[in-house]
Amino acid sequence: MSQHPILLPSNPRRSAVGLALAGAMAALAPGVVMADGDAEARPTLPRVAACSTRYAEVDAPRPGAAASGHEAIREGFDTHRHWGTEENVQRLGIGQTGLDEPGLRVHYPAGSSSPGEEPRGGAGFYTEPAALAGAERTCLSYRVRFAEGFDFVKGGKLPGLYGGDAPSGGDEVDGESGFSMRLMWREHGQGELYPYVVDREGESLGRGAWSFPTGRWVTVEQELLLNDPGEANGVARVWIDGQPVLEQDDLVFRTTPELTIDGLMFSTFFGGTGEEWQTPRDQHVDFAAFRLHAPTP
């Protein structure tokens, strides 16, 4: 599988030029905090431009006109696979998002964590746009806004891309039935990738490579390049507010060419499982401006 041209000459983790670039990126992006520590502790940065600038936009799902968040999701995201959307999702109008399009406010009631426990907080749904049929490379972008003073506790899930059965929650990944690549927030707003791919179910990738601020919109971009079956050459990249923050290039999403990228896995809740993950009070996070991009034929 061919990959995009490398725009910088060396691995940023291992060169003085790369370390200077990492520092410059952190300084240029308010609210984005690079990992602390020496050169080896720093994450590898994407060495290509943000994926939304390199691929064509193929889908722009947004909440429908229905007043109910649940119905707005069913209308605008063309999904019939969902949980928590009736109880915990509110549709936001343009005046509430401050953007040129509506959004979603997801609620996390006090004491909620994993959706398998009561009270159930957060919500989830899946999209499968026809424009991504057979996709082996895809870019997802969206905007997220944590409420001012948001208590991150130990962490929680954020949307990402998926294929097949979208394994999660302790599932074993076999490389044939599916994969998922969500993001997470962690303590103090640290960000990370949270994969369910072969042999890396639920690992923490790049924790602290960036941090989420509160009280303002942040743009998240995630790019996946699926591996060639039989090779550990799958790639996941993340940009925050247009700045490169994380690249992982040794992933096994699949062992068969029939498994490809299906779409958006909208999944958000506090947890983990257990009391230490629970939100101590009612909280919310806003989402908007979902876009899917793919290479032109």
Automatic annotation (TrEMBL):
Pfam families: Polysacc_lyase_14 (PF21294). Residues 1-35 form the signal peptide. It comes from the Bacteria. PROSITE patterns: TAT. Residues 101-290 form the Polysaccharide lyase domain. Keywords: Signal. InterPro entries: Polysacc_lyase_14, TAT_signal. PANTHER family: DISAGGREGATASE RELATED REPEAT PROTEIN, PTHR40124. This is Polysaccharide lyase 14 domain-containing protein.
